[in-house]
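Weekly puzzle thread! Below is a chain. First person to post its structure in token form gets bragging rights.
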Amino acid sequence: MLILRGKCKGFYRRGGETESSAEYILPALPNNTNHINQMNHKNHSPTIWFMSIFYLLAGINHFIHPSSYLQVIPPYLPAHEVLNDIAGVAEITAAILLHIRTTRKLAAWGIVMMLLAFVPVHIYMIQQAPMRMGSLLITPLIAWLRLPLQAVLIFWAYTFTRNR
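Winning reply:
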């Protein structure tokens, strides 16, 4: 038990004729102090872990295999290498920020914006299919399926923008 003398806000007053002579006792902390831990288990549903791993690996892949990404950036966009690096950093940053309760909403909105920014890439892939993305063959069907997949990924990220 912590006992202090003098004026103390937020503590329980015990005894003493004047405020300065009273003793103040620290209120009992709740048994469950998970609210202190920003990275407790309740904040990490399996979907957050899966999303985080997905974007972490995708972000790292921008730096391991940049040529795969550079070839799908439409020619009318400038500085392909810089755009690729920005996308990789954004995906890695979002993956990390998803795990911090106070930044999860920001990370989720960032993912939504990033996926919207990637739509021109997916349209360009449809125009260029069939094509190779690294060792992967992108057929016209796969290119078309990637576009609605973006809507699913956007909705998935959006679910984490709401207060939980």
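Puzzle host: Confirmed. Bonus trivia for everyone else. The helical segments are 46-64, 66-70, 80-97, 101-117, 119-128, 140-158.
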